[in-house]
Amino acid sequence: MATIDDRNAGTLGDAAGHGGHHDEHGSYLQPKETLLATIWDWATTVDHKKIGVMYLSAVLMMFFFGGVAALAVRTELLYPVRTVEVQGVDAQGQPTTTTTVTGQWLASFLGVKDANIAQNNQLYNRAFTLHGAIMVFMVIIPSVPAALGNFFLPIMIGAKDVAFPRLNLLSWYIYVTGSIFGIMSILLGGVDTGWTFYTPYSTTTDADQLKVVFMVLAAFILGFSSILTGLNFVVTVHKLRAPGMGWFDMPLFVWALYATSILQVLATPVIGITLLLLTFERIFRVGIFDPGLGGDPVLFQHFFWFYSHPVVYVMILPGMAIINEIIPVHAHKKIFGYRSMAFASLGIAAVSFLVWGHHMFTAEGELAATVFSALTFLVAVPTAVKMFNWVGTLYKGSISMTPPMVYALMFLFLFAIGGLTGLPLATLSTDMHLHDSYFVVAHFHYVMMGGTIIAFVGGLHHWWPKLFGKMYNQRAAIVFALIQFVGFNVTFFTQFILGTRGMPRRYASYIDEFQMLHQISTVGSYMLAVGFTGSLAVFVHSLLAGKKAPQNPWGGLTLEWHIESPPTTHNFHKEPIVHHGPYDFDTVLPPGWDPKDYPVPNAEAQAKAYEQVEHIHIGHQGQH
Amino acid sequence: MTTIPHDSHSPHGHPSPAPERPKTMLWQVYKAAHHFRNKEEEFDGVKLGMWLFLATEVLLFSGLFCAYTIFRIMYPQAFANGSQYLDWRWGGLNTIVLLISSYTMASGIRWVQLQEYGKAKFNLLFTMFCGLVFLIIKFTFEYTPKWSGYFFFLDPALKHHHDSGKTALGGLFHFVEGYGGKRPGELFSYPFSTDPYEHLWWSVYYSATGIHASHVIIGMGFIWWVYRRVCKGVYGPTHYTGVEMSGLYWHLVDLIWIFLFPLLYLIH
User: Fold this and answer.
1) Which of A343, B144, B152, B238 falls between 20 and 30 A from A359, CA-CA?
2) Residue B75: which CATH number?
3) Chain B residues with CB inside 8 Å of A227's CB?
């Protein structure tokens, strides 16, 4: 965009920098003349909205694959693996013993004949690794920032695009390349290292093939995509805010994504070097992480978690970002404690760099474990600030029970459980019992899935009318949301109980006492599958037969509700000037709404605010 | 730097040796990308982005420095042994080469700002040349002998070898019998090692310098790209973003070597 055609360099003119934007007042979704031209247009677009939609499609596709892997894991756990010896008598009257193995669903499903227990266990290991690696690296990390953030962050601060549009497209292609590496690894048979690639699993298992290298490189490449997106967002927020939008006039979605981006930029390079060293280790046997050669496998854990703990907040902060928007808009009330919310986001980002050791309580010294345990409790403070602020916003709000609101309430409920169950894991004495048990599995699913994924789906419902300009069936959306909610709790609450009773994670089998709880959990995962398929159906129906969405269906005040649904190519017809805060529901009539439908509670304040705004308005016009 | 006047027809005190250019240069008509308000904001934005990117590069290398520290504490004797085989003179020469290249890079930016394109192009080419010299020294005199036992010329400091008479590349390289390879990890086959963990030193050495060398190559690529654009007249006093950014990257490459050199070559 920024370059000028060399041949026309001699001709000066205003049009020089703006060639190719002939239909900037049309919807960004407007197709080109032919299908091929449309595909080419999307494949080479630098429009942040199209890139956001492309991320969204890619992420949803990977969510499907990761979900299938999760269902495979849960189905395997319907029955424990048992070796059954049948005593019998053969034709000659001699006693015989026939041994059969039961409960090996994965082996029989994949058609592995006469699989022994080790083979089935390996298949199980691969299934949960697949699930974990896809969900973490290809779904949760890019879901909110790269898909919804790409689309809405520039609009919310009144910009035409992100700071580096071509870099943005590049990071999408890097994401796709990384995902292809991951898929190649899966096609070669999959890896069984767990998504954490702990050494020596990752340096010794499947030693004859490059599968692990492919998966590790996939994570390495995806990291670059994440860094570039984060870098782009930081510069965008610093440099492209519309006139009138100071730091504390930004929507909290932007604040939380800003904190996320800082984490992405500062933490991801460390996993980059770690995975690079792991690749060297795998290919050249350099020995840095190999105890057999004098290396230190715990060093890998330190390196890995130095990135992966901040990345836990790369995953949850954007979820919080979405809830920051949904709750005030659908409760039609100013958010409680704006500044504390903004600083809590930054606080979480800061603390997240100090707590990586709590993933390794059983692998590090007592002093280190104690220090990390103490620091871990710090995380609870900004997180609790956010929880209380959301509840405070709901209090005496005028709550509309729309699908996004239902998802936000689900988030509050599930995230509270997820957060509170983190405390016994941060406490050394209880963690000794709960470490690597189903309790941990349930805890991070409540945070990652009940938190981020539910917020992501809620955000999709919140912004769907703006994304595609179509409304969806709200009643159906709420029904499927509730199915997801029930299914989620059935799946994972049982796992808390399993964990406290001693069920370790990552086992394909279990003792008979656990069977009932495992089966309940599996049924819950099927309910989740139904719920998410239903949500997908609602969205597909909306695209095909949905009513046209109004400009501002929920009554939001942030800038994306000031423009058309779907937005035009350049988002705004002229540079917006920000007159009001993002959550001034008391004093501002939502754009596109009739005063009869929305009696502004404080008309006097409104008049005063407009008076003040006039000054700001004039001041900024002078500058630009 | 942005205070340089926009008017290109008065190149303030530096009369251009070339006859007056008839056509407009690209930098004179340069407009910022449509989503930036003006060129200055775009420049600031790109610069902020570049500094963030450099921060990620520093963090990338910080992992290596961390590994270096930990293994140094774990196996001090292995590190003391290993680092003796690095010749500080080659490292020092490479340090000087990179420092000179940083100077020429900075000069290149300055000459672009002053519209002295001939000097700018020379400085950029010289910077790339220094990068090449660095890599040649690294590969010919450091990696090759250590990895394979082939020496460009025989190092009199080596006590335990005898000339086998085997040569490569028309007698340029001499093979040292029984020398083995000072290679990383499992590939380590140097028979005279006195510490069982010396291979870890070489793992750290090859990882750190190898990743640094790849950055030198990437940096040279950036400078080549910028050089081509300088030839086309894309940059000038009011628009030199690309030159400045590749310069920043090149200085980072230099800076990382400034830290690697003493850690690897000077302390034992």
Assistant:
1) A343
2) 1.20.120.80
3) 53, 56
A550-586 confidence digits (pLDDT tens): 999 999 999 999 999 899 998 998 888 888 889 988 8
Residue among A230, A228, A232, A164 at smallest CA distance from A1: A164
Whether residues A235 and B45 touch (CB distance < 8 A) is answered with: yes
Chain B interface disruption, residue of A228, A235, A573, most B CBs within 10 A: A235
- Lowest-confidence region among A320-329, A393-402, B177-186: B177-186
Contact predicate B203/B264, CB 8 Å: no
Run of H or E residues at A83: strand A82-89
- Please state which CATH number belongs to domain A117-545: 1.20.210.10
Domain presence at residue B174: no
Average pLDDT of chain B is 85
DSSP for chain B, please give it.
-TTS-S-TT--TT---SSPPPSSPPGGGG----TTSSSHHHHHHHHHHHHHHHHHHHHHHHHHHHHHHHHHHHH-HHHHHHHHHTS-HHHHHHHHHHHHHHHHHHHHHHHHHHTT-HHHHHHHHHHHHHHHHHHHHIIIIIIIHHHHHSEESS--TT--S--EEEEEETTTTEEEETT-----SGGG---TT-SSTTHHHHHHHHHHHHHHHHHHHHHHHHHHHHHHHHHHHT--BTTB-HHHHHHHHHHHHHHHHHHHHHIIIII--
Question: Which of A10, A162, A285 has its CB closest to that of B185?
Answer: A285
Taking the Cβ of residue B213 and every Cβ of chain A, the question of whether any pair is shorter than 8 Å is answered with no
A159 interfaces chain B, CB cutoff of 8 Å: yes
Nearest CA-CA distance, residue B203 and chain A, Å: 5
**Per-residue pLDDT band at B17 (split at 50, 70, 90):** low
Q: Is the CB of B162 inside 8 Å of chain A's CB atoms?
A: no
Size of interface A-B (CB pairs under 8 A): 159
Q: Does B70 touch chain A (CB under 8 A)?
A: yes
pTM of the model: 0.88
Asked whether the beta carbons of A480 and A531 are under 8 A apart, the reply is yes
Q: Which residue of B has its CA nearest to A16?
A: B31
**Alpha carbon distances (Å) from B148 to B51, B141, B182:** 39, 11, 8
User: Would you state the structure tokens that stand for residue A608, as one six-digit string?
Assistant: 């005063």
How far is residue A562's CA from residue B155's CA, in Å, rounded to a whole number?
A: 74
Residue B65 is assigned to a structural domain of this protein: yes
What pairing do the DSSP bridges indicate for beta strands A95-102 and B173-176?
unpaired
Between A240, A265, A299, which is nearest B35 by CB? A240
- DSSP character string of A410-457: HHHHHHHHHHHTHHHHHSHHHHHHHTTBHHHHHHHHHHIIIIIIHHHH
Residue B254 lies in a domain: yes
Both tokens of A445, joined, read 């699913």
From chain B residues 5-34, the ones with a CB under 8 A of any chain A CB are 23-26, 29-34
A281 contacts B34? CB cut-off 8 A: no
pLDDT at residue number A67: 96
Residue A2: the pLDDT is 32
> Per the structure, how many domains does chain B have?
1
Residue B195: closest C-alpha in chain A:
A294
**ipTM for this model:** 0.86
Residue of B nearest to A274 (CA): B63
CB contact under 8 A, A276 and B70: no
B52 is a domain residue: no
Residue A12: closest CA among chain B residues belongs to which residue? Answer: B29
Please check whether residue A17 touches B, CB under 8 A: yes
Query: How far A266 CA sits from the closest chain B CA (Å)?
Result: 6
Whether residue A440 has pLDDT greater than 90: yes
Task: Give me the domain span that covers residue B208.
Answer: 57-149+197-266
- Looking at the complex, does the CB of residue A227 fall below 8 Å from at least one CB of chain B? yes
